[in-house]
Amino acid sequence: MDEVSKTGYREWESELATIAPELLEELGEKREPEKGLPPLAGAEGGVTMRFAPNPNGPPTLGSARGIIVNSEYVRRYNGRFILRFDDTDPKTKPPLPDAYTWYLEDCRWLGAEPDEVIIASDRLEIYYDHARELIEKGGGYVCSCSQSEFKEYRDKGEPCPHREESTGENLDRWREMLGGAVEAGRAVLRVKTDMGHRNPAIRDWVAFRIVDTPHPRPEIGDRYRVWPLLDFESAVEDHLLKITHIIRGKDLIDSENRQRYIYRYFNWEYPRTLHWGRVKIHEFGRLSTSEIGAAIRRGRYTGWDDPRLPTIRSLRRRGIQREALRRFFIGLGVNETDIELSMENIYGENRKIVDRTARRYFFTPNPVRVRIKDAPPTVAKPLLHPPETRRGHRTIPVKNEVMISREDAEKLKNNELLRLKDLYNIRITKINKVIEAEYTKGEIDIIREKKCRIIHWAPPDGIRVEVLTVKGRESGIGEPGIAESIGRVVQFERYGFVRIDSMKDGIVTAYFAHR
RNA sequence: GCUCCGAUAGUGUAGCGGCCAAUCAUUUCGGCCUUUCGAGCCGAAGACUCGGGUUCAAAUCCCGAUCGGAGCACCA
Length: 515
Known about the structure:
Blueprint: H1 2-6, H2 9-19, H3 21-28, E1 48-51, H4 61-77, E2 80-85, H5 97-109, E3 116-119, H6 124-136, E4 140-143, H7 147-156, H8 167-179, E5 188-191, E6 206-210, E7 226-228, H9 230-240, E8 245-249, H10 253-266, E9 272-276, E10 279-281, H11 289-297, H12 312-317, H13 322-332, E11 339-341, H14 344-355, E12 359-361, E13 363-365, E14 367-373, E15 378-380, E16 396-398, E17 401-405, H15 406-410, E18 417-420, E19 425-430, E20 435-440, H16 444-450, E21 454-455, E22 463-468, E23 473-478, E24 489-492, E25 496-504, E26 507-514
Parallel strand pairs: 1-2, 2-3, 8-9, 10-11, 12-24, 14-20, 18-21, 22-26
Antiparallel strand pairs: 4-5, 5-6, 6-7, 13-23, 14-17, 15-16, 18-19, 19-20, 22-23, 24-25, 25-26
Helix pairs in contact: 2-3, 4-13, 9-10, 13-14
This protein binds one RNA strand through helix 1, helix 2, helix 7, strand 6 and helix 10.
């Protein structure tokens, strides 16, 4: 062995060839790179996963990651996907009744139809039963310390007086809590963990508290006033639903340590867990659902599908395809690093998908009129989809005036020769409020030769179009055919991809997707 | 402060002791093609946070530093 160590890799290799050729073969094997998500450890016995949001707003880009990655694993291993609403806080993060439906809609739209939908607020009795059982096992106690009192005990790592009470006493006090005799804030049910745990976050955490605020779901309302906290509810549900793998934000890592105490008391097996870091998107920053909700109420946004918001419904309205989101998030994988990324990545995926089918149209934002001398009346026939000529063309009748975008108009020079795309060549004769030009004979070859510009245009009697973008609203004139593409994602040539949303009073509204 | 994590091109991501003078995508820049500043094709640019150690061999293992993040709630 000493002899081998002194020599280099090459020698080492040839030496190996003489003593153990079968090992050398192993050395030469190429490792296959994994496409998409890495395999899930422990998936052999079947996979059940859940996505567990608090429905206090519609799903956002962040939720999409959870929905897509969880459901993708389930799909790959032929398992079960559960959508579970963790809606057990009627007070500080009150659920929004509409959001339950929104989650279901958006899951479906993303191609993640849940096999089962669970609503925690329907299952309080189950949690109460488990709480009682926990107390009976000596794993829980009713604590009437105030928050600050308990904080002192926790910081010192010492038990509070209630910790030592008998099981019978605790059961009585638990029944009192449930019975409504105790004021909100005067008692909680704690899980007995370890007051000396090195991580204070783990020490005797709260499992249930009393909340007087009614639950926003009308069918629940004020039926209950003792509510479990996430760690208790989630711990019990994950077991009951036979969840095998959990993927969640790394902010919940300590949660797992807390929940493991419950699993220990009940002798359950904890699911495998994976965590991901925080995602920050340049274009949107960090917006919490509750902040967005408040901004909508203030009128800062038009609603949850405002194109400036990172909600799934907004992206959908803008024409972002589910497949773009799926590819994107599957490519991101599951990683504990916090990431900061740009929407460009998603737009790039979307562009590839949408370009294959999007019809092309002319749209001139902030239009400026161009009067063309000696222009013969004609009909322009640009292709509907240039890569596929057999899809036919649009027809745009033109007299002797067109509109061009202000951006193009500002770049014009006197006497400039240019081409109106798919129409004819013109020469600029006068730049004014109305631009004057003259019709010039000659085809595209002249333009190419002289490297002149080709710009798009719209007929003055075209259709009025309002485009809603992330930055604001832009209005202009588009070719009439746009009205035939309502609901479709199209490309406004030299402008970008938009989804034609609707038409009202002869005005088309489009949502801007990306360039 | 205490308890945990993490660090690969501008942005993401693969790799997890010899196939790595490091993958793929996006980005940026050239060129071709095209009656779009779109798409496509070709080419180029660009990274293992730093310092020690272990080893014949380190992006990969260990220790430390730096930077970043999460938790320490009767929120999820």
